[in-house]
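Q: What structure does this chain adopt?
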Amino acid sequence: MPEWDRAALRRILSDRLGLDEVYNLAYDLQIDYESLAGEGRNAKARNLLLTLERRGALDDLMTWLRQNRPDIALPASNAVTHTPTPAPPTPSLPPSVVERIRDLSRQLDQANADKDWDTVITLGELILAIDAHHEPSRTITATAYRFRGVSYANNSVFSKR
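A:
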């Protein structure tokens, strides 16, 4: 699978697509737009990109862009035109642990799409126990805590006294 310039793809999604197009893109690639963390086009586009990256579906994004927005010049694969941001100092994880995080991340994405906030929180905390610097899991887990709280409030779980 080719590597794509993440920063360039984020700029395309944020700057060149309208809110309706970001929504349609998520729909066409079977991602629940409402489950994407953040408010507004830029945050939704960024989290859509993260979700596609975790699913290994950036090629699907490129195909969608070629078909639906042929006017956009797409970055070439393996083209890194920016200086990568150094990762936080974390110990190198063994391949078996990396695979476990990938598996949990896939489950996390599905639970997030299903809006199963308790499962999202459980899986997110499992991933963060393994790798406290796993940013996508931190964001999704925090958002799930927020949505679960709203859900409890809306369902009158807490009685008013």
